[in-house]
Specification:
The chain has 80 residues and is mainly alpha-helical. 41% of the residues lie in helices and 0% in strands. The chain has a domain at 29-78. The chain starts with 28 loop residues before the first helix and ends in a 5-residue tail after the last helix. The relative contact order is 0.17.
């Protein structure tokens, strides 16, 4: 079970990262696995798809293949 706010007084919602705060370590594959599973469960429950953008970007071809594999395994059937 995931506990994610779906709305708030400040207008932000869901799995939102504060764009003004700089983090030393960005989204890693293990952490992103948890996030993609929450996204998948949300899509199953609501029928609404949401996006995912890895924090810090993808810098190498090897990283792009790792991220593609993660997305394919976890979210591929939810792509419209």
């Amino acid at each position: 079970m995931w506990r994610v706010p779906l709305g708030g007084d400040d207008g932000r919602s869901g799995l939102h990262q504060d764009v003004y705060r700089q983090e030393a370590t960005n989204a890693t594959l293990p952490v992103s696995l948890v996030m993609t599973r929450a996204i998948r469960e949300y899509a199953q429950e609501t029928g609404m798809a949401v996006g995912f953008k890895p924090a810090g970007g993808i810098r190498t071809a090897k990283q792009s293949l790792e991220w593609l594999a993660l997305m394919k395994e976890e979210l591929w059937r939810f792509v419209a």
